[in-house]
Amino acid sequence: MSVQTLRLHLRAVVQEEAARPRAGGARRCRVFMRRLSAGLFAAAALLSQAAAARAQQQEYIPCPPEQQTLLTVPMLAAQNNILRGTIVLGDEQQAIPFRLPPQSKPGDPGSIVRCQPQYVRTLRGVGAVPAPPAPTGQFPNPMPGPTLRARVGDIINLTFINQINPGHFGRSIDNGEKGFGCDQPIPPGDAYPDCFHGSSTGNIHFHGSHTNPNNTGDNVFVEVRPLPRNNQGNLTTTPQEVQEGLDRFYAQCNERLKISPLVAWPKVWEDMPPNWAGKQKNLLSNYDEEMKKAYGIPPAKALSPTNDWQIKNGYWPQYYIGVFPYCFRLPEYTEPTWPPPKPVTVHTHQVQSPQLPRAGAGTAELNSRGVVPPEQMGVSPTLIMGQAPGTHWYHAHKHGSTAINVANGMTGVFIMEGSYDDDLNAFYGANWTRTQPVMVINQLGVTPNLLRGGQGGQGGIGATDKGPDFSINGQIRPVVNMRPNEVQMWRVVNTAGRAGVYFHTPPAAQYEWRQLAQDGVQFNDFNYKARPRGPFLLASGNRADLLVQAKPCPGGAKTCQYPVIVQNQVDPSDLASANNLTLLTINVSGDPVSTATPAGQFIPQAPRFPAFLKDISDDEITGTKIMTFGSTSPGQGGQHTIDGKKFDGEVGALVQLNRVEEWKIQNATYGPKISHPFHIHINPFQVTEIFDPNATINVTYTDPKTKKKLTANNVKQYAFVPDDLFKILGNPGFQAYVRSQQCQLDPQADPVTWKPCGPPFKNVNNIWWDVFPIPSGRRLPVNKIDPKTGQPVIDPKTNKPVPVQVPGYFKMRSRFVDYAGYYVLHCHILAHEDRGMMTVVEVAPATTPYSHN
User: Fold this and answer.
1) Number of domains in the chain
2) What DSSP string describes 430-467?
3) pLDDT attached to residue 2
4) d(CA 1, CA 51)
5) How many CA atoms lie within 13 A of 478 on its CB side?
6) What is the pLDDT of residue 552?
7) What is the distance of C-alpha 93 from the center of its chain?
8) d(CA 632, CA 669)
9) Tens of pLDDT along 818-831?
10) What residues make up the domain containing 14?
11) Element (H, E) at 711
């Protein structure tokens, strides 16, 4: 921590106190002095930690070896239709790689990777197999969380234990409870809760799950503080103590969830085992009391009263100490067609279905309408969609610490099996999909990107452009072993919290691939065959299932190696300067696989396509929304907002349950260019229109004299100003043809006219996503003109003309079905999410479905 940072921190304490109401002079003075003393103590501790970190920086250690066989991540698998396991959030020192010099780009000539022992937060599965490999050096090597494997229809019982030692991470306990708020008062302009804070608190988001977002489901509002420790750092409450009563809870929860895929249980806090709930209440009270003792004043944000208020008012409590039980079901859609049959009648009133069936609300919704739960009256709610089988994943999602915790490695793959796997195994062999490589890409680090170097970094060691190098399963540039002609299925997940991975087209003589699925949702047969090969981007949060075939070595050689080449991308403009990187290497050796056998072939037809993934048609749409993501430049404080607001816990998007909407997701970021990866929880979506005002095209045309093929490269696809129009001196015919391929738009027209040219897109054979990059905006070299006066529009704040700014956007359609409740959407550049680029989605229970005739 620099002297300037210390000044900023103490100034923040003084300014915050000065802003308080003027009352209770003497007492107020004593309180202020206690708070100032606490601030000085904390700042001194940070200075000590920073000095220790600087001293440690010269203690480089050997890095884990590169070009090693890809590791198998330990796995927790379901048995008898229940995935029962325990995931422990802990910490350990690992050999963490850093790229030097600090401001180098991945792959820069002369850059090197050095390693240091660094404390990081880890996720480990109790009893996961195989056991993690032995360290190659003095410290453990990085490793993602355990792979979870279950089948659609299964019930998930996961006990999450937080036994981090906060003493290893400085001010990692949520400082909002102490009245300080953010971990550090930088970057400038950040304010609690939209800042880096609370990195010892944990939870799990099940990315790609179509399930209950409330209570013990995919609930990202849950916050689990670490198990308490004494001054010596020893646990004063054991993991076993905080789990007492959970066996009973899981048994009760499972019995309820077996009734229907839409039953949501537990419904209220009183459904939890009394002994477990009582233990949590005591632990929270003790936690609040310790905060009071440590600072001499009541905590600024006591946890117990917050939980008590939530329970009293019928909400699920938010705060826990040491443990949280996740219990939910992966709903299986069993109907052979879509839409599902109309719902049954309830009592004597006919359920209405003007667009989609109104059933499927689940127990929680029925209770909110005063209706007897379906398990008590023999009514099974109708499932409208289901869980898509495929490659999904999970990660830490505590607002304020998502970026640092994901960078530490708190991510893992969640494989949800179904008929997709059955069809692949029928072609390639029994259990074939369970033997195939799982690849967890990450950018491992110990400091959020915006704090690397300068005031917040550890002596500049982490200040790397575009983030750290990519790792796979904790390894740098691992090796995948394949036989000549062998086909493997790679489940590839980009869990990196910042950069996208742009995969280059495979060299035809080395290896081929066919993409089977995107974001855990399989392709139908048309899309499988239409995308045989070619480049693709995995933005932060994206994943892809690939069938990969290795070609025999050239010249009859017995062994050879083929690099898989990628580039680091946050925006398409990055590709012009980003270096080519070897993500992994295919090592080809052994006896060739016969191409006459399935093992040497791409499956000829895609696995059966689920009925509920039918394309969303125009007549399904019942509502629309426009949502704008925007980042200001670093010189303006680098603020990240949605619809001009930072995250404040308020609902930013309200949708009625079992409705279908089409949203326009805009990107009002004009410099530097950032294609924010949009992510929404619970329901996947289809992209129906893309408008990138910075897009370029290559146009090929024929010279009428020489008959030669000529190509105009990097032509502006959208021509707003004369300089955008393609010009060929002396060749007006060529020029006119190339211009005809451009989309000419009026910079002074209504912005709704800024969209792709050509016929409207027909939503047929579309694919599904849960993360999609929003094209960055473009600032034009012209100013806005007032249509009434014909004069430039003047900004009253700057007294300067307002430039024309064109946002990029995409349109998406989604079915907000089956599960009511609260969840979030956000930018998947996780430092942006932590700093405010997130909002709450409320899917409200449907209006009463009854009519009296």
Assistant:
1) 5
2) TTGGGGS-EEEEE---SS-GGGSSTTTSSTTTT--TTS
3) 35
4) 8
5) 18
6) 97
7) 25
8) 7
9) 999 999 999 999 99
10) 3-56
11) strand 709-716
Write out the H or E segment, with its range, that includes residue 307.
helix 303-312
> What phi and psi values does residue 255 have, to the nearest 5 degrees?
-65, -40
Check whether residue 705 and residue 658 sit in a common domain. Answer: no
Please check whether residues 718 and 740 belong to one and the same domain.
yes
Give this prediction's pTM. Answer: 0.88
- Which letter does DSSP use for residue 574 in this model? G
Is residue 161 within a helix (H) or strand (E), and if so which, with residue range? Answer: strand 155-162
Within 10 Å of residue 793's Cβ, how many Cβ atoms? 14
CA distance 608 to 427: 13
| Residue 226 and residue 292 in one domain | yes
Task: Report CA torsion sign: 349, 350, 353, 357.
Answer: positive
**Pairing state between β 438-442 and 487-494:** parallel
Which residue, 352, 385, 417, sits at the end of a domain? 417
pLDDT at 730: 60
CA nearest to 804, candidates 696, 673, 668, 690: 668
Which helix (H) or strand (E) element contains residue 288? Answer: helix 274-295
The residues pairing with 204 across neighbouring beta strands, listed in sequence order, are none
Q: Are residues 592 and 521 in the same domain?
A: yes
Q: Is the dihedral of CA 498, 535, 149, 130 positive or negative?
A: negative
- Nearest 5°: phi and psi at 93? -80, 130
**DSSP at 303:** H
Q: Decide: helix, strand or coil at residue 419.
A: helix
pLDDT score for 176: 66
Beta strands 147-151 and 75-77 are parallel
Q: What element of type H or E holds 412?
A: strand 411-417
3-class secondary structure, 40 = helix
Half-sphere exposure of 62 (CA within 13 A, CB side): 9
DSSP SS3 for 792: strand
Per-residue 3-state assignment (H helix, E strand, C coil) for 721-768: CHHHCCCCCCCHHHHHHHHHHCEECCCCCCHHHCCCCCCCCCCCCCCE
Q: Report which of 97, 104, 42, 98 is spatially closest to residue 65, judged by C-alpha positions.
A: 97
Contacting residues for 714 by C-beta, under 8 A, at least 6 apart: 696, 698
Go through 261-300 and write b for each residue having 16 or more CB atoms within 10 A of its CB, e for each that does not. bbbbbbbebeebbeebbebbbebbbebbeebeeebeeebb
- Rounded to 5°, the CA angle 469-470-474 comes to 110
- Find residue 586's DSSP bridge partners: 480, 562
Give the 3-state secondary structure of 222-273.
CEEECCCECCCCCECCCHHHHCCCHHHHHHHHHHHHCCCCCCCCCCCHHHCC
pLDDT < 50 stretches in the chain? 1-57, 344-372, 374-379, 450-462, 849, 851-853
Q: 210: which 2 tokens?
A: 């179509």
On whether both 495 and 402 belong to a single domain, the answer is no
Note whether 389 and 523 are same-domain residues.
Answer: no
